[in-house]
Amino acid sequence: MSSDDDIFSRLSPRSRTLAGLVLAMSNLMVVLDLTIANVSVPHIAGNLGISPDQGTWIITSYAVAEAICVPLTGWLAQRFGVVRMFTMAMIGFGLFSVLCGLSSTLGMLVACRIGQGICGGPIMPMSQTLLMRIFPPEMRGRAMGMWAMTTLMGPALGPIVGGYISDNWSWHWIFFINLPIAVLCIFAAQALLKPVETETANVPIDKMGLFLLVFWIGCLQIMLDIGRDHDWFADPIIVALALLAVIGFVAFVIWELTEEHPVVDLRVFRHVGFSSGLFTMALCFGAYFASIVVIPQWLQMSMGYTATLAGIVTAMTAMAALFTAPIAGYMISRVDVRLMISGAVAWIGIMSLVRAHWTSGVDFGTMIIPQFVQGFALPFFFIPLTTLTLGSVLPSETASAAGLQNFVRTMATAIATSLVLTSWGDSQRVSRNDMADVLQPEQTQSLLSSLGFSSEQARQTISNLVEQEAIVMAVDHVFFMSAMILFAAAVIVWIAPKPRGNVDTSAAH
């Protein structure tokens, strides 16, 4: 009996199925937490007495911490065993979720979200590793399909669940609900997965590489998060952070290319297919995530929507993706993946152009349609792009390439959040000033006065109207810029050579 057969025989079919469900649930929880806070930002900002701009640190801090921790997953699993690390990560995630819910200041909430991200980062890849470990080859396709469905369901359920909880309970509960799921996963892992624990080895860790990684990403993200409040490069602090980020990044690249056991294996970038595919992924995820951040905030702050309704509009894209994911999986071995990616990205870009014509009078149904139609293209971009990038590297480099792919994807969402909100704010100011230059408020004021408004009420009404229109024009600007980026990404993907067949995508996460 081979060692693999021995592993599979350690679990009964029932235990294997239960373990698969628990691993899928753990992945769903972590993916859900990336989007569940998006629609709750206005609630959290109002409760903590901070601006919505500052409230978005709750999104970026989690994403950055998760991205930094993902490259460490392989080392942690080898050093402590994959089941033990999975259990410890779940304990940490549950604990920091409770602390997030108990937070009374922005500083405490951001610190606890960083803790949540550090613990959540390894859960996704380790849940996938364990699925591959407990299911025999002939059952892995179905197991990975179930896992992939949770990755798609997370962004769909996150805004709806977050909106409903914020409207009907309180924002604290978007974090508290993680606790029972985490406890269930911890006990189930101990009861079911102990027999498939991996062997441990005292492998070295690239401490300097890890330090440089945290340093340059930390400087970059702080610069992006506080830049708009400090007038960007007019402030010496922002200039200093930008210089430190550049120096740290250059030092990180040089160190990692010369280190024997790098924390991030940058050598895989020598493959043109991997590099162009990863660049395409970063652009697409950044542009796609722009709408996930902007739409719920605009609908709640300017359009008078509840968090629940804003969440439903946001989630429609991921809902549609659930229908077409099986078709994309079926077509992947029959169609050139570059054609699938290019077509899907262009499709998403066209839907961004449609949304760039929204007005302050747009209704719920009009917003739902492009959101839903856009979603059909998501699996035709995400699934083939994974095949393209992993199919461009050597089989021995697949794990490193998959880890780097997840790192770049998560960082793209964090950086895009900061850049989009800056662009949105700047565009609002420009639109407001442009309207103020051409307005003729005297006529409107006299009309309002004849309707019984006082001069102060009339001025305030005009100001509110200008503000509302400036915000929606800024939203349209964000969608237009997203569309241009997506169209560029649809072309860039053709730089990649056609990938080889039979790609092992099991290491992707």
From TrEMBL:
It comes from the Bacteria. GO terms for molecular function: transmembrane transporter activity. The chain crosses the membrane at residues 18-37, 57-77, 89-108, 147-165, 171-193, 205-224, 236-257, 278-299, 305-325, 337-356, 376-394, 478-496. Signal peptide: none annotated. InterPro entries: EmrB-like, MFS, MFS_dom, MFS_trans_sf. It is a multi-pass membrane protein. It is found in: Cell membrane. It holds the Pfam family MFS_1. Residues 19-500 form the Major facilitator superfamily (MFS) profile domain. Keywords: Cell membrane, Membrane, Transmembrane, Transmembrane helix, Transport. Gene3D superfamilies: Multidrug resistance protein D. PROSITE patterns: MFS. GO terms for cellular component: plasma membrane. Belongs to the major facilitator superfamily. EmrB family. This is DSBA oxidoreductase. It comes from Sphingobium cupriresistens LL01. The lineage of its organism: Bacteria, Pseudomonadati, Pseudomonadota, Alphaproteobacteria, Sphingomonadales.
